[in-house]
């Protein structure tokens, strides 16, 4: 299912191949976020043109809209959205975190009110897998609770115990459930524990005893300072098995991703490239640009002189600024497309650097250039 193919001698960065029934995923990998069966503003063909190998969907949102009946009748999420490559689905655990004012936790699961119409619903470890089973994703995530930062130790301990019980129930339920789908679905466990390293260690030990196809590092990038994110990611990744993929959830900026790759992380997702792109922020090797700014009014260069995406091959900063200032949808599409292309290309260059044994110097050179004043 997963094979490490090469290790960089200068750090813990590594290359791997994750095999799914919808194709192989080369790691390290960045997964564009398609929360509601779409990576916002982009078509599946555009994602393929960016060389995206796998995308992420969200079970909670798709369960509410359009609903499992419709997606089931369509033949699953791949057919519903017209994407024939691998898909990873989040279980809805992050919504337990982000919709804290709308939910109530118990050992059974999470009772919550829909953010759409206020209707009542219950998510349990079992129903989260049932939902993802109907979606037909290639990788399913266990149901968990993500806690806010900062969090008191006693609350984190209680939350971690709950998450571990849910993880055990998920594995037991999946083993008992007869799956009639056309392809295999992998199940990843999620390491929680907030900023308490001993609790992170405890979480890893318990998840390893249960046994999963891969392991995610959850509960980071929820308000912690950058140095603490790196500490948690590096400490946790070092505890995870060599022969399983390691997934850092919700991270992050280009320097964050490169730092995590050096720490031995394999998989990433983040809404930053598309969310920020819709607001006019473009990522380049020399830092990020806010294309709404007046400085670009007569700037007839592409977003990034070194980029080969559709936006950079065909349009200028001045034109894109004009689109944003006139509220034309093409502007947010072009910057979102560029950002996804940039992220995927950055990972591709990282893989080359790892293979050539120079990832640390590649990372350091990139971060130094990226942190320069925006152009």
């Amino acid at each position: 299912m997963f094979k490490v193919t090469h290790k960089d001698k200068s750090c813990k960065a590594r290359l791997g191949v994750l095999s799914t029934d919808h194709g192989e995923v080369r790691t390290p990998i960045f997964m564009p976020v398609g929360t509601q069966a779409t990576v916002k503003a982009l078509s599946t063909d555009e994602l393929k043109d960016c060389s995206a190998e796998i995308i992420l969907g969200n079970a909670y949102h798709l369960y509410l809209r359009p609903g499992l009946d419709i997606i089931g009748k369509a033949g699953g999420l791949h057919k519903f959205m017209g994407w024939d490559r691998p898909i990873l689905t989040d279980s809805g655990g992050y919504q337990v975190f982000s919709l804290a004012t709308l939910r109530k936790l118990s050992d059974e699961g999470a009772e919550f009110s829909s953010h759409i119409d206020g209707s009542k619903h219950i998510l349990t470890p079992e129903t989260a897998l049932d939902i993802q089973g109907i979606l037909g994703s290639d990788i399913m995530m266990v149901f968990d609770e993500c806690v806010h930062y900062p969090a008191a130790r006693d609350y984190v301990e209680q939350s971690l115990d709950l998450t571990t019980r849910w993880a055990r129930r998920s594995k037991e339920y999946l083993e008992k459930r007869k799956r009639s789908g056309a392809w295999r679905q992998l199940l990843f466990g999620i390491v929680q524990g907030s900023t308490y390293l001993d609790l992170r260690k405890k979480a890893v030990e318990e998840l390893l005893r249960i046994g999963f196809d891969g392991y995610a590092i959850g509960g980071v990038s929820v308000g912690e300072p950058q140095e603490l994110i790196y500490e948690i990611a590096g400490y946790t990744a070092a505890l995870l098995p060599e022969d399983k993929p390691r997934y850092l959830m919700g991270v992050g900026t280009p320097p964050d991703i490169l730092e995590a790759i050096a720490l031995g992380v394999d998989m990433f997702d983040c809404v930053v490239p598309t969310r920020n792109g819709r607001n006019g922020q473009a990522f380049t090797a020399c830092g990020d640009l806010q294309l709404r700014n007046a400085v670009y009014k007569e700037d007839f260069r592409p977003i990034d002189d070194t980029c080969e995406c559709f936006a950079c091959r065909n349009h200028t900063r001045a034109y894109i600024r004009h689109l944003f200032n006139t509220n034309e949808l093409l502007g947010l599409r072009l910057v979102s497309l560029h950002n996804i292309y940039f992220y995927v290309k950055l990972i591709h260059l990282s893989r080359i650097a790892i293979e050539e044994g120079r990832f640390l110097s590649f990372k350091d050179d990139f971060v130094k250039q990226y942190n320069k004043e925006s152009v």
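Residues 281-370 form one domain. The chain has two domains: 29-270, 281-370.
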